[in-house]
Amino acid sequence: MSYESPIRDLLVTGGKTYSDITTEITRPIENKPSKAWWLGFGLSTIVLAIWIFSTTYTMVVGLGAWGLNKTVGWAFDITNFVFWVGIGHAGTLISAVLLLFRQKWRMSINRSAEAMTIFAVICAASFILSHMGRPWVAYWPIPLPNAFGSLWVNFNSPLVWDVFAISTYFSVSLVFWYVGLIPDIATVRDRATSKARKFWYGFFAMGWNGSTKVWHRYEVISLILAAISTPLVLSVHSIVSMDFATSLVPGWHTTIFPPYFVAGAIFSGFGMVLTLLVVAREVLNYKDYITSEHLDAMCRVVMLTGTLVGLAYITEFFVAAYSGVEYEQYAFLNRAFGPYGWSYWIMMGCNLVAPQVFWSKWARTTPWFIFIMSIIVNIGMWFERFVIIVTSLHRDFLPSSWSMYTPTIVEFAILLGSFGLFFFLFFLFMKFLPSINMSELKSIVKTKHALELEKHYTELLNNNHKMPQHAHETKGDSVHGH
Amino acid sequence: MDTNKVILGIYNDPDHIYDATKKLIHDGYRVRDVYSPFAIHGMDRVLGIKRSRLTVAAFCFAMTGIILALTLQTYASYFDWQMNVGGKPSLHIPTYIPITFELAILCTAFGMVGCFFAVNKMVWGKNADIIDIRVTDDLFVVAIDIIPNKTDVAELSSILKNNGAIEIREREFED
Amino acid sequence: MSHDTHIEIKEEKYTITDGNKKWSYGLMIVGLLLTILGYFTYHPSIEGMNLTADDLHHLVSKRFWGNLLVDSYFTFIIATCAIIFVVISQLANAAWYVAIRRIPEAMSTYMIIGAGLLLAIILVNFYVLHGGIYHWAHPGVMESDPLLAKKTWYLSQPFYLVRLVLFTAFWIFCAAQIRKNSRNEDLVGGVENFDKNFKISTVFLVVFGFTFSMFAWDLMMSVDAHWYSTIFTIYNFATGWVSALTVTYLLVWYLRGKGYLAIVTDEHQHDLGKFMFAFSVFWTYMWTAQFLLIWYANIPEEVVYYEERMFGSYQFSFYLNIVLNFVVPFFLFMMRDAKRNRKVGYFVGGAILFGHWNDCLLMVMPGAMDLPTAISEHNPTGTIEIPNQGIGFMEIGMLLFFVGLFLIVVLKGLTKANLYPTRHPFIYESAMHDVGV
Question: Does ipTM surpass 0.95 in this model?
Answer without folding.
Answer: no
